[in-house]
Amino acid sequence: MSRWSELAREVRADVAAARQRDPAAQDVSSFEILTSWAGVQALLAHRAAHALLEARVPLLPRAIAYVSRAVTGVEIHPAAEIGESFFIDHGAGVVIGETAVIGDFVTLYQGVTLGGTGFQRGKRHPTVGDNVTVGSGAKLLGPIAVGDGAKIGANTVVVEDVPPRSTVVGNPGHTVRVEGRRPEGPDADWIHLPDPIAEAIKSLSERIGELERRLSELDGRENGEGPAAEIQPRTGRSSAGG
User: Fold this and answer.
1) Concatenated DSSP letters for the chain?
2) What distance in Å separates the CA atoms of residue 46 and residue 43, rounded to the nearest whole number?
3) Edge-to-edge strands of the sheet including 133-134?
4) Cβ atoms 14, 85 nearer than 8 A
5) What separation, in Å, do the N-terminal and C-terminal C-alpha atoms of the chain show?
6) Per-residue pLDDT tens for 167-207?
7) Long-range CB contacts (< 8 A, 24+ apart) of 163-171?
8) Residue 133 phi, psi dihedral angles, 5° rounding
9) From CA 62, how far away is CA 49, in angstroms rounded?
10) Could you tell me the domains of the chain?
């Protein structure tokens, strides 16, 4: 009975997480969230399947996971370990593997995969820390560790460990620190992520401009071309609400 009481507490926390992190759920009842939010339904089914698997009930946990995938579009292996206040936004296409471990207050968006990279046995899926946000379509592959407070950009492919309170973007993922602040709660601003490729191009452009200036001085004539166009960071209001 204590396990099922804990399960009920976890479900209440999951519903509260959906209300806090999804703007569409602000004025929606808990009953409507439980019956209409695919991510919450998938998590509710997983909580029950995981409890049954721990109780060594045969077949039923995987049957629940199979039906949940068919209904919600979210596939969570019954053995995956998921912490409190977990939220899957939209849900469609999310896959969480058998040995994945997810901490507390984690947010996943649609199309996220916590998968493996081979046929080896044992630990083969990611371990995600607390307060992590993973953007749409991101793929976290292998027995990697994602540190607390990290942010994974949309469509990023992560195959190496992610330091705490850092941001990863690109394919393969590039790790960059969050400048000067620690995001509070799930940060859904995918517009203003650091872009290491753009920064490298900007640095090369500046070096080429400096070399052209020096060459013109050596030739004794002015450089006829104007300065290289500067790559400006995106400014203004974010379409992601930031």
Assistant:
1) -HHHHHHHHHHHHHHHHHHHH-GGGTT--HHHHHHH-HHHHHHHHHHHHHHHHHTT--SHHHHHHHHHHHHHS-EE-TT-EE-SS-EESS-TT-EE-TT-EE-SS-EE-TT-EEE-SSS--S--S-EE-TT-EE-TT-EEESS-EE-TT-EE-TT-EE-S-B-TTEEEETTTTEEEE-SS----S-----SS---HHHHHHHHHHHHHHHHHHHHHHHHTS---S-PPPP-PPP-S--TT--
2) 5
3) 87-88, 107-108, 133-134, 151-152, 166-169, 174-177
4) yes
5) 44
6) 898 888 887 765 545 445 555 555 556 666 667 787 888 88
7) 164/129, 167/193, 167/194, 169/193, 169/194, 169/195, 169/196, 170/196, 170/197
8) -120, 130
9) 7
10) 2-177 (2.160.10.10), 195-242 (no CATH)
Considering the entire predicted model, what is its pTM?
Answer: 0.72
Q: Residue 87: left (phi > 0), alpha (psi -120 to 50), or beta?
A: beta
Structure tokens that stand for 129 in this block: 């820390």
Q: Which two tokens stand for residue 183?
A: 């995001």
**Length of the chain in terms of residues written:** 242
Distances (CA, A) of 185 to 64, 105, 148, 207: 31, 8, 12, 39
**C-alpha atoms less than 13 angstroms from C-alpha of 122 in its C-beta half-sphere:** 2
Q: Which residues contact 117 (CB under 8 A, 6 or more apart)?
A: 124, 141, 142, 159
For the segment 101-142, what is each residue's pLDDT rounded down to a tens digit? 999 999 999 999 999 987 778 899 999 999 999 999 999 999
